[in-house]
Amino acid sequence: MAEERPPAHGSGHDPDHRPLDERDHLVLRSAEQFKALGHPVRHRMVNVLRQRPATLRQLAHALGMSKGTIGYHVRVLREAGLVLLAETRQVRGGTEQYFALVSQTFRLHQDAAVGPEFLINAALGEMLPAGPGQASHTALRHLWLTGTEAHALEARLRATTAEPCSTDPTRGEPYGLLVSFFRVNVPSLPPDDEP
Questions:
Q1: Contact status, residue 103 vs residue 25, Cβ threshold 8 Å
Q2: What is the β-pairing status of strands 106-108 and 26-28?
Q3: pTM for the complete prediction?
Q4: Distance between CA 179 and CA 119 in Å, rounded?
Q5: SS3 track for 41-86
Q6: 14-67 per-position pLDDT tens digit
Q7: 10, 24 in Cβ contact below 8 A?
């Protein structure tokens, strides 16, 4: 019997009035949300729950922690509006609770107190060194673009990151993609004086 449900697709909001945007991304804005996501265990838990709803026992097994510790972190995520009780099932004389993310994707609100550094730090916490034969690529480039070129590149990057991707762990290994397009503080040299 379900006690809480994820928002209906395309509804724009869920029954608890969590702010969802037009693509059903949970819009992160509150200090409580960022504090909840800023803890490494809870951050990993959110990534595990992107695969499917799970019980405390399943989360404890996946994360190698006790059910009590996992229960505490699930409670913090629920209080921050990031996780909900998706359903309950009767099993061998007891009740199992399945927890799910309120949205598969999160987005930073433009007025959030944190910015891209929050996502960059999250990515750094997830990064594993590439092993032999594993795909990996990190690069930092500086581009000089007109306003029109910058907006066109931003649109291409947004389209690329909006493409659906699999969260099925049976399909392979998890990889992260961090895309950041930003203005940089690189001074420009004056024109070269010709003799």
A1: yes
A2: parallel
A3: 0.68
A4: 10
A5: HHHHHHHHHCCCCECHHHHHHHHCCCHHHHHHHHHHHHHCCCEEEE
A6: 334 455 544 567 888 888 888 898 898 998 999 899 889 999 999 999 999 999
A7: yes
* Helix, strand, coil shares, percent, the chain, to 5: 35, 15, 50
Long-range contacts of 6-12 (CB under 8 A, 24+ apart): 6/84, 6/86, 6/100, 6/101, 6/102, 6/103, 7/102, 7/103
Answer yes or no: are the C-beta atoms of 70 and 89 closer than 8 Å: no
Cα dihedral: 11, 12, 13, 14 (round 10): 30
Q: Which two tokens stand for residue 89?
A: 């099932």
Tokens of 178: 């961090």
DSSP 189: P
Tokens of 21: 């945007």
Token pair of 109 as six digits = 């609100």
Q: What is the largest CA-CA distance in the chain?
A: 91
pLDDT digits (tens, 9 = 90+) for 132-176: 888 888 888 889 899 999 999 999 998 888 887 777 778 888 888
